[in-house]
Amino acid sequence: MKLFNYKAKDKSNELVTGEVEATDERHAAKLVRERGLIVLTIKPVRESIFGIIKKLKEKVTSSDVTSFTRQLSTMINAGLPITEALHILRNQLKGSMQKVVATILSDIEGGESLSSSLEKHKKVFSSTYIALIKSGEVGGVLDEVLASLADNIEKQQEFKGKVKGALIYPVIIVVGMFAVSLIMMIFVMPRLMSLYQDFNAELPLPTKILIGTSNFIFKFWPLVLVLVGSGFYGFSLYRKTPKGRRKIDELIFKIPIFGSLQRQIILTDLTRTLSLMSGAGVSILEALNITAEVVGNVVISEALKDAAIQVEKGFPVAFSFARHPDAFPYILSQMVAVGEETGKMEEVLKKISHVFEIESDEEVKGLTAAIEPVIMIILGLGVGFLVIAVILPIYNLTSSF
After folding, report:
1. Quick one: CA dihedral 266, 267, 268, 274, positive or negative?
2. Model pLDDT for residues 123-138, shown as the tens digit of each residue
3. Contact, 146 vs 76, CB < 8 A?
4. Cα–Cα distance for residue pair 320/134, rounded to 1 Å
5. Cα–Cα 20 to 30 A to 27, which of 180, 231, 290, 304?
6. Which residues have C-beta within 8 Å of that of residue 322, sequence separation ≥ 6?
7. pTM of this prediction?
8. 3-state secondary structure of 79
9. By the 8 A CB rule, do 39 and 32 touch?
10. Domains of the chain from N-terminus onward
11. How far apart are CA 177 and CA 313, in angstroms?
Protein backbone atom coordinates (compact mmCIF):
# COMPACT_ATOMS: atom_id res chain seq x y z
CA MET A 1 0.00 0.00 0.00
CA LYS A 2 1.27 3.46 -0.97
CA LEU A 3 0.29 6.96 0.08
CA PHE A 4 -0.88 9.44 -2.59
CA ASN A 5 -1.54 13.20 -2.47
CA TYR A 6 -4.51 14.30 -4.55
CA LYS A 7 -6.11 17.49 -5.78
CA ALA A 8 -9.78 17.33 -6.69
CA LYS A 9 -12.98 19.34 -6.97
CA ASP A 10 -16.13 18.69 -5.03
CA LYS A 11 -19.75 19.12 -6.19
CA SER A 12 -19.65 22.86 -5.49
CA ASN A 13 -16.51 23.18 -7.66
CA GLU A 14 -14.30 23.89 -4.63
CA LEU A 15 -10.67 22.71 -4.66
CA VAL A 16 -10.04 19.82 -2.26
CA THR A 17 -6.64 18.34 -1.31
CA GLY A 18 -5.82 15.34 0.79
CA GLU A 19 -4.12 11.96 1.10
CA VAL A 20 -5.34 8.49 0.20
CA GLU A 21 -3.74 5.06 0.64
CA ALA A 22 -3.92 2.65 -2.30
CA THR A 23 -1.99 0.01 -4.23
CA ASP A 24 -1.39 2.23 -7.28
CA GLU A 25 -2.49 5.52 -8.89
CA ARG A 26 -5.51 3.96 -10.61
CA HIS A 27 -6.77 2.50 -7.35
CA ALA A 28 -6.12 5.84 -5.57
CA ALA A 29 -8.16 7.69 -8.21
CA LYS A 30 -11.00 5.21 -7.77
CA LEU A 31 -11.04 5.75 -4.00
CA VAL A 32 -11.09 9.55 -4.47
CA ARG A 33 -13.99 9.33 -6.97
CA GLU A 34 -15.91 7.18 -4.49
CA ARG A 35 -15.85 10.20 -2.17
CA GLY A 36 -17.85 12.16 -4.77
CA LEU A 37 -14.85 14.16 -5.98
CA ILE A 38 -13.52 14.93 -9.47
CA VAL A 39 -9.83 14.00 -9.62
CA LEU A 40 -7.41 16.63 -10.91
CA THR A 41 -3.98 15.27 -9.95
CA ILE A 42 -2.63 12.30 -7.99
CA LYS A 43 1.01 12.00 -6.98
CA PRO A 44 2.75 9.43 -4.75
CA VAL A 45 4.06 10.76 -1.43
CA ARG A 46 7.83 10.52 -0.98
CA GLU A 47 8.56 8.67 2.23
CA SER A 48 11.05 9.94 4.81
CA ILE A 49 13.39 7.63 6.69
CA PHE A 50 10.97 7.70 9.62
CA GLY A 51 8.15 6.69 7.31
CA ILE A 52 10.17 3.75 6.00
CA ILE A 53 10.97 2.59 9.56
CA LYS A 54 7.30 2.90 10.51
CA LYS A 55 6.31 0.94 7.42
CA LEU A 56 8.72 -1.86 8.33
CA LYS A 57 7.24 -2.02 11.83
CA GLU A 58 3.72 -2.22 10.41
CA LYS A 59 4.60 -4.95 7.90
CA VAL A 60 1.98 -7.68 7.60
CA THR A 61 3.30 -10.89 9.20
CA SER A 62 2.43 -14.51 8.50
CA SER A 63 0.60 -14.56 11.86
CA ASP A 64 -1.65 -11.73 10.61
CA VAL A 65 -2.51 -13.74 7.49
CA THR A 66 -3.16 -16.85 9.59
CA SER A 67 -5.51 -14.95 11.92
CA PHE A 68 -7.31 -13.31 8.98
CA THR A 69 -7.82 -16.64 7.21
CA ARG A 70 -9.09 -18.45 10.32
CA GLN A 71 -11.54 -15.68 11.26
CA LEU A 72 -12.81 -15.28 7.69
CA SER A 73 -13.22 -19.06 7.41
CA THR A 74 -15.19 -19.21 10.68
CA MET A 75 -17.56 -16.43 9.60
CA ILE A 76 -18.10 -17.76 6.07
CA ASN A 77 -18.82 -21.25 7.46
CA ALA A 78 -21.30 -19.66 9.87
CA GLY A 79 -23.26 -18.36 6.87
CA LEU A 80 -22.25 -14.68 6.90
CA PRO A 81 -21.95 -12.95 3.50
CA ILE A 82 -18.34 -12.22 2.58
CA THR A 83 -18.89 -8.44 2.63
CA GLU A 84 -20.30 -8.56 6.16
CA ALA A 85 -17.44 -10.82 7.29
CA LEU A 86 -14.88 -8.39 5.86
CA HIS A 87 -16.69 -5.46 7.52
CA ILE A 88 -16.30 -7.18 10.89
CA LEU A 89 -12.64 -8.02 10.24
CA ARG A 90 -11.88 -4.46 9.16
CA ASN A 91 -13.19 -3.20 12.49
CA GLN A 92 -11.41 -5.90 14.53
CA LEU A 93 -7.97 -5.96 12.94
CA LYS A 94 -5.29 -3.32 13.46
CA GLY A 95 -2.29 -1.92 11.63
CA SER A 96 -1.41 -2.76 8.05
CA MET A 97 -3.67 -5.81 7.92
CA GLN A 98 -6.67 -3.59 8.63
CA LYS A 99 -5.75 -1.42 5.64
CA VAL A 100 -5.39 -4.49 3.42
CA VAL A 101 -8.81 -5.81 4.50
CA ALA A 102 -10.36 -2.35 3.91
CA THR A 103 -8.99 -2.35 0.35
CA ILE A 104 -10.24 -5.89 -0.30
CA LEU A 105 -13.69 -4.94 1.01
CA SER A 106 -13.77 -1.88 -1.24
CA ASP A 107 -12.85 -4.00 -4.29
CA ILE A 108 -15.50 -6.64 -3.54
CA GLU A 109 -18.18 -3.98 -3.00
CA GLY A 110 -17.10 -2.62 -6.38
CA GLY A 111 -17.91 -5.94 -8.04
CA GLU A 112 -14.55 -7.73 -8.01
CA SER A 113 -14.03 -11.30 -6.80
CA LEU A 114 -12.08 -12.12 -3.66
CA SER A 115 -9.25 -13.79 -5.59
CA SER A 116 -8.80 -10.86 -7.99
CA SER A 117 -8.68 -8.48 -5.03
CA LEU A 118 -6.09 -10.65 -3.26
CA GLU A 119 -3.90 -10.56 -6.38
CA LYS A 120 -3.31 -6.86 -5.71
CA HIS A 121 -1.59 -7.82 -2.45
CA LYS A 122 0.96 -10.41 -3.62
CA LYS A 123 3.40 -9.34 -0.90
CA VAL A 124 0.81 -10.40 1.68
CA PHE A 125 -0.86 -13.42 0.03
CA SER A 126 1.19 -16.06 -1.80
CA SER A 127 0.42 -17.39 -5.27
CA THR A 128 -0.70 -20.66 -3.67
CA TYR A 129 -3.12 -18.83 -1.40
CA ILE A 130 -4.64 -16.88 -4.31
CA ALA A 131 -4.92 -19.99 -6.53
CA LEU A 132 -6.76 -21.88 -3.78
CA ILE A 133 -9.22 -19.03 -3.22
CA LYS A 134 -9.84 -18.84 -6.95
CA SER A 135 -10.51 -22.59 -7.09
CA GLY A 136 -12.91 -22.30 -4.15
CA GLU A 137 -14.83 -19.53 -5.92
CA VAL A 138 -15.05 -21.45 -9.19
CA GLY A 139 -16.13 -24.69 -7.49
CA GLY A 140 -18.54 -22.99 -5.09
CA VAL A 141 -16.69 -24.39 -2.08
CA LEU A 142 -14.99 -21.24 -0.78
CA ASP A 143 -16.00 -22.08 2.81
CA GLU A 144 -14.31 -25.51 2.64
CA VAL A 145 -11.19 -24.10 0.97
CA LEU A 146 -10.86 -21.35 3.58
CA ALA A 147 -11.18 -23.89 6.42
CA SER A 148 -8.56 -26.18 4.86
CA LEU A 149 -6.30 -23.24 4.09
CA ALA A 150 -6.52 -21.98 7.68
CA ASP A 151 -5.64 -25.46 9.01
CA ASN A 152 -2.73 -25.71 6.59
CA ILE A 153 -1.28 -22.30 7.47
CA GLU A 154 -1.60 -23.00 11.20
CA LYS A 155 0.25 -26.32 10.80
CA GLN A 156 3.01 -24.55 8.87
CA GLN A 157 3.28 -21.90 11.59
CA GLU A 158 3.42 -24.54 14.32
CA PHE A 159 6.07 -26.55 12.50
CA LYS A 160 8.25 -23.50 11.79
CA GLY A 161 7.92 -22.54 15.45
CA LYS A 162 9.28 -25.94 16.50
CA VAL A 163 12.29 -25.63 14.20
CA LYS A 164 13.06 -22.06 15.31
CA GLY A 165 12.65 -23.00 18.95
CA ALA A 166 15.14 -25.85 18.60
CA LEU A 167 17.75 -23.58 17.01
CA ILE A 168 17.47 -20.65 19.45
CA TYR A 169 19.85 -22.13 22.04
CA PRO A 170 22.75 -22.83 19.63
CA VAL A 171 22.40 -19.38 18.03
CA ILE A 172 22.47 -17.63 21.43
CA ILE A 173 25.61 -19.56 22.46
CA VAL A 174 27.44 -18.73 19.21
CA VAL A 175 26.49 -15.03 19.36
CA GLY A 176 27.51 -14.84 23.03
CA MET A 177 30.87 -16.49 22.32
CA PHE A 178 31.55 -14.09 19.46
CA ALA A 179 30.58 -11.05 21.59
CA VAL A 180 32.86 -12.09 24.48
CA SER A 181 35.78 -12.66 22.09
CA LEU A 182 35.22 -9.25 20.50
CA ILE A 183 35.10 -7.49 23.90
CA MET A 184 38.30 -9.24 24.95
CA MET A 185 40.17 -8.19 21.82
CA ILE A 186 38.92 -4.59 21.74
CA PHE A 187 38.89 -3.60 25.43
CA VAL A 188 40.90 -6.09 27.52
CA MET A 189 43.93 -6.95 25.38
CA PRO A 190 45.10 -3.35 24.71
CA ARG A 191 45.25 -2.75 28.52
CA LEU A 192 47.16 -5.98 29.13
CA MET A 193 49.51 -5.14 26.26
CA SER A 194 50.66 -1.96 28.02
CA LEU A 195 51.29 -4.00 31.18
CA TYR A 196 53.40 -6.57 29.31
CA GLN A 197 55.41 -3.83 27.59
CA ASP A 198 56.20 -2.14 30.91
CA PHE A 199 57.78 -5.36 32.20
CA ASN A 200 59.38 -6.31 28.84
CA ALA A 201 57.69 -9.69 29.14
CA GLU A 202 58.36 -12.38 26.56
CA LEU A 203 54.95 -13.18 25.10
CA PRO A 204 53.93 -16.75 24.21
CA LEU A 205 52.56 -17.55 20.76
CA PRO A 206 48.82 -17.61 21.75
CA THR A 207 49.17 -14.13 23.30
CA LYS A 208 50.96 -12.80 20.20
CA ILE A 209 48.18 -14.13 17.98
CA LEU A 210 45.46 -12.60 20.18
CA ILE A 211 47.25 -9.24 20.48
CA GLY A 212 47.93 -9.13 16.75
CA THR A 213 44.27 -9.77 16.00
CA SER A 214 43.22 -7.22 18.63
CA ASN A 215 45.56 -4.55 17.24
CA PHE A 216 44.39 -5.15 13.70
CA ILE A 217 40.70 -4.85 14.67
CA PHE A 218 41.36 -1.81 16.89
CA LYS A 219 43.43 0.09 14.29
CA PHE A 220 41.68 -0.99 11.11
CA TRP A 221 38.08 -1.48 12.27
CA PRO A 222 36.72 0.62 9.35
CA LEU A 223 38.55 -1.70 6.95
CA VAL A 224 37.18 -4.74 8.83
CA LEU A 225 33.64 -3.39 8.54
CA VAL A 226 34.15 -2.66 4.84
CA LEU A 227 35.55 -6.14 4.21
CA VAL A 228 32.72 -7.83 6.12
CA GLY A 229 30.09 -5.65 4.40
CA SER A 230 31.67 -6.28 0.98
CA GLY A 231 31.72 -10.00 1.69
CA PHE A 232 28.02 -10.06 2.55
CA TYR A 233 27.17 -7.83 -0.44
CA GLY A 234 29.22 -9.97 -2.83
CA PHE A 235 27.61 -13.12 -1.47
CA SER A 236 24.11 -11.61 -1.90
CA LEU A 237 24.92 -10.62 -5.50
CA TYR A 238 26.21 -14.12 -6.24
CA ARG A 239 23.12 -15.59 -4.53
CA LYS A 240 20.87 -13.62 -6.90
CA THR A 241 22.45 -15.10 -10.02
CA PRO A 242 20.83 -18.33 -11.31
CA LYS A 243 24.12 -20.22 -11.19
CA GLY A 244 25.02 -18.91 -7.72
CA ARG A 245 21.62 -19.62 -6.23
CA ARG A 246 21.60 -23.19 -7.55
CA LYS A 247 25.16 -23.81 -6.32
CA ILE A 248 24.36 -22.50 -2.82
CA ASP A 249 21.09 -24.46 -2.61
CA GLU A 250 22.93 -27.62 -3.66
CA LEU A 251 25.57 -27.02 -0.97
CA ILE A 252 22.87 -26.47 1.67
CA PHE A 253 21.47 -29.96 0.98
CA LYS A 254 24.97 -31.43 1.38
CA ILE A 255 25.56 -29.97 4.87
CA PRO A 256 25.48 -32.87 7.37
CA ILE A 257 22.25 -33.06 9.40
CA PHE A 258 21.19 -29.47 8.60
CA GLY A 259 20.94 -30.15 4.84
CA SER A 260 18.75 -33.17 5.39
CA LEU A 261 16.56 -31.18 7.79
CA GLN A 262 16.18 -28.34 5.28
CA ARG A 263 15.12 -30.81 2.60
CA GLN A 264 12.57 -32.47 4.90
CA ILE A 265 11.07 -29.10 5.86
CA ILE A 266 10.64 -28.08 2.21
CA LEU A 267 9.12 -31.45 1.29
CA THR A 268 6.71 -31.25 4.24
CA ASP A 269 5.39 -27.87 3.09
CA LEU A 270 5.41 -28.96 -0.56
CA THR A 271 3.36 -32.14 -0.11
CA ARG A 272 0.94 -30.46 2.31
CA THR A 273 0.35 -27.64 -0.20
CA LEU A 274 -0.07 -30.05 -3.13
CA SER A 275 -2.57 -32.05 -1.08
CA LEU A 276 -4.56 -28.92 -0.27
CA MET A 277 -4.58 -27.75 -3.89
CA SER A 278 -5.56 -31.20 -5.12
CA GLY A 279 -8.49 -31.29 -2.70
CA ALA A 280 -9.56 -27.79 -3.77
CA GLY A 281 -9.85 -28.87 -7.39
CA VAL A 282 -6.68 -27.26 -8.73
CA SER A 283 -5.24 -29.29 -11.62
CA ILE A 284 -2.00 -31.10 -10.84
CA LEU A 285 -0.26 -29.24 -13.68
CA GLU A 286 -1.24 -25.85 -12.28
CA ALA A 287 -0.38 -26.98 -8.74
CA LEU A 288 3.13 -28.03 -9.82
CA ASN A 289 3.75 -24.72 -11.60
CA ILE A 290 2.50 -22.65 -8.66
CA THR A 291 4.51 -24.55 -6.04
CA ALA A 292 7.60 -24.34 -8.26
CA GLU A 293 7.40 -20.55 -8.03
CA VAL A 294 7.01 -20.36 -4.24
CA VAL A 295 9.27 -23.20 -3.04
CA GLY A 296 12.40 -21.92 -1.31
CA ASN A 297 15.05 -24.06 -3.04
CA VAL A 298 16.15 -23.92 -6.69
CA VAL A 299 16.96 -27.65 -6.87
CA ILE A 300 13.38 -28.60 -5.93
CA SER A 301 11.89 -25.68 -7.89
CA GLU A 302 13.59 -26.77 -11.13
CA ALA A 303 12.57 -30.38 -10.49
CA LEU A 304 8.92 -29.28 -10.09
CA LYS A 305 9.06 -27.24 -13.30
CA ASP A 306 10.46 -30.24 -15.18
CA ALA A 307 7.80 -32.47 -13.61
CA ALA A 308 5.12 -30.05 -14.86
CA ILE A 309 6.58 -30.27 -18.37
CA GLN A 310 6.57 -34.08 -18.24
CA VAL A 311 2.97 -34.16 -16.96
CA GLU A 312 1.96 -31.80 -19.76
CA LYS A 313 3.46 -34.31 -22.21
CA GLY A 314 1.30 -37.06 -20.72
CA PHE A 315 3.68 -38.77 -18.31
CA PRO A 316 2.51 -39.74 -14.79
CA VAL A 317 3.44 -37.49 -11.87
CA ALA A 318 5.25 -40.36 -10.13
CA PHE A 319 7.47 -40.90 -13.19
CA SER A 320 8.21 -37.17 -13.35
CA PHE A 321 9.25 -37.11 -9.68
CA ALA A 322 11.37 -40.25 -10.06
CA ARG A 323 13.48 -38.42 -12.68
CA HIS A 324 14.84 -36.18 -9.91
CA PRO A 325 16.20 -38.34 -7.05
CA ASP A 326 18.35 -35.39 -5.87
CA ALA A 327 15.17 -33.41 -5.13
CA PHE A 328 12.51 -36.03 -4.31
CA PRO A 329 13.11 -39.17 -2.23
CA TYR A 330 12.03 -42.54 -3.60
CA ILE A 331 9.15 -42.85 -1.12
CA LEU A 332 7.50 -39.72 -2.56
CA SER A 333 7.34 -41.05 -6.13
CA GLN A 334 6.12 -44.40 -4.78
CA MET A 335 3.30 -42.84 -2.77
CA VAL A 336 2.33 -40.52 -5.63
CA ALA A 337 2.10 -43.57 -7.91
CA VAL A 338 -0.32 -45.14 -5.41
CA GLY A 339 -2.35 -41.93 -5.35
CA GLU A 340 -2.57 -41.84 -9.14
CA GLU A 341 -3.63 -45.49 -9.36
CA THR A 342 -6.29 -45.23 -6.65
CA GLY A 343 -7.49 -41.71 -7.49
CA LYS A 344 -6.84 -40.58 -3.90
CA MET A 345 -4.02 -38.14 -4.53
CA GLU A 346 -5.17 -35.71 -1.83
CA GLU A 347 -5.17 -38.38 0.92
CA VAL A 348 -1.86 -39.88 -0.17
CA LEU A 349 -0.13 -36.49 -0.28
CA LYS A 350 -1.53 -35.64 3.15
CA LYS A 351 -0.16 -38.90 4.57
CA ILE A 352 3.28 -38.48 3.01
CA SER A 353 3.34 -34.91 4.33
CA HIS A 354 2.72 -36.31 7.82
CA VAL A 355 5.58 -38.78 7.31
CA PHE A 356 7.94 -35.98 6.28
CA GLU A 357 6.81 -33.91 9.28
CA ILE A 358 7.62 -36.75 11.69
CA GLU A 359 11.01 -37.24 10.01
CA SER A 360 11.64 -33.48 10.26
CA ASP A 361 10.89 -33.58 13.99
CA GLU A 362 13.43 -36.38 14.36
CA GLU A 363 15.96 -34.39 12.30
CA VAL A 364 15.42 -31.36 14.55
CA LYS A 365 16.04 -33.46 17.64
CA GLY A 366 19.14 -34.97 16.00
CA LEU A 367 20.41 -31.54 14.98
CA THR A 368 19.93 -30.18 18.50
CA ALA A 369 21.61 -33.22 20.04
CA ALA A 370 24.55 -32.92 17.64
CA ILE A 371 24.97 -29.14 17.84
CA GLU A 372 25.06 -28.84 21.64
CA PRO A 373 28.22 -30.96 22.22
CA VAL A 374 29.93 -29.45 19.15
CA ILE A 375 29.23 -25.93 20.41
CA MET A 376 30.44 -26.83 23.90
CA ILE A 377 33.69 -28.21 22.46
CA ILE A 378 34.23 -25.10 20.29
CA LEU A 379 33.31 -22.86 23.23
CA GLY A 380 35.70 -24.76 25.49
CA LEU A 381 38.54 -24.43 22.96
CA GLY A 382 37.83 -20.72 22.50
CA VAL A 383 37.69 -20.00 26.22
CA GLY A 384 40.77 -22.15 26.80
CA PHE A 385 42.71 -20.23 24.13
CA LEU A 386 41.67 -16.88 25.65
CA VAL A 387 42.63 -18.02 29.17
CA ILE A 388 46.02 -19.31 28.03
CA ALA A 389 46.69 -16.14 26.01
CA VAL A 390 45.80 -13.86 28.96
CA ILE A 391 46.98 -15.84 32.00
CA LEU A 392 50.22 -17.39 30.71
CA PRO A 393 52.16 -14.08 30.37
CA ILE A 394 50.96 -13.02 33.84
CA TYR A 395 52.12 -16.37 35.24
CA ASN A 396 55.52 -15.93 33.56
CA LEU A 397 55.83 -12.43 35.06
CA THR A 398 54.99 -13.55 38.59
CA SER A 399 57.32 -16.56 38.41
CA SER A 400 60.24 -14.36 37.27
CA PHE A 401 60.23 -12.39 40.55
Report:
1. positive
2. 888 877 887 888 788 7
3. yes
4. 27
5. 290
6. 328, 330, 333
7. 0.65
8. coil
9. yes
10. 2-56 (3.10.20), 60-125 (no CATH), 126-401 (1.20.81.30)
11. 55
